[in-house]
Amino acid sequence: MRRPLVAGNWKMHGSRAENARLVEALIEAGGASASEVVVCPPAVYLWETARLIKGEELLLGAQNVCAETHPGAFTGEVSADMLADVGASYVLVGHSERRALYGETDALVARKFVATQAASLTPILCVGETLAEREQGLTDAVVARQLDAVLAVAGIRAFRRAVVAYEPVWAIGTGKNASPEQAEAVHAFIRDRIASQDATIAAALRLLYGGSVKAANAAEIFAQPNVDGGLVGGASLKADEFLRICAASG
Ligand code: PEP
Fold it and tell me: Which residue range(s) make up the domain with 166?
């Protein structure tokens, strides 16, 4: 049985005061979901958020990580060991905004995935196609390429301690979510691809959907057999909305 997971990606939003209000509201309503719930604040707020959620059911995730595993001359970067040190459990790896805006290649994403696991953190590997790629019928090919790049470097066994998020780029922050059927088709494709290397690992792997998830559409997306929860951006900044999404997941 795969325990559902909902991760809130706050992106570059928030302030100390806003974060405290949001986290307090989530904690107050705690127990609304049987799912694992993860909040991913900007790096500068991780430590304080870790203290706010200490002793609570909420878990902490980072939005990005440096691919380098040793301390050194990497100005501006944050290592996986540092993320673990401040209490993170999860790391988003290969979010489409990192790929598109910061030039993260499949190869770099694979290194970040490995660095995350080396610090005993769980990567949430984000994959997904652009609108142009979908229109050209390339969805499966793009997702396969992104997955295979990580499989080639990390190996199939690494997927025992990983989560994969399918996030069609055309659905992120646009208000246009994939239909439940579209999401399920790609999730089934991802699970089959992992199963072609190890059926047991594939059966246990949690696959999240991300892209304009909101309270109004969460239940029907999460009801799909291969959807094990969600990666939620905009709607994770509103406590009520996020809680309703979490409640719909498990
Ligand atoms: C995301 O940031 O990963 C995301 C899915 O954003 P949104 O829910 O706002 O589309």
Answer: 61-238
